Amino acid sequence: MSKLAVWIGSLVPSLVAKVLAALGMGVLTVTGFTIAWNTVKGMIIANFTAMPATILGLASLAGVGEALGIIFGAITARVAYTALISSSKIVGMK
Questions:
Q1: Keywords on this record (predicted)?
Q2: Quick one: how far is CA 3 from the chain centroid?
């Protein structure tokens, strides 16, 4: 039984290091993406609201705002999924 405990004890430091590395990569990816994406969203929204009132009203009736929300959500979900997959590769899970 003690050999099993020694073997498990030898695995713990490398496993902890891999998990911390994956968490660090995930945090960096999400933080960097959040900063960049908020900037892009702010620019798009600022330019969208700078349109003349008639065009803005027509675009609102056509659902452009909802379409932009769906697109922003899809891109965010894709980046989160990619970060999850890449961090699981660092840990060694397939």
A1: Membrane, Transmembrane, Transmembrane helix
A2: 42
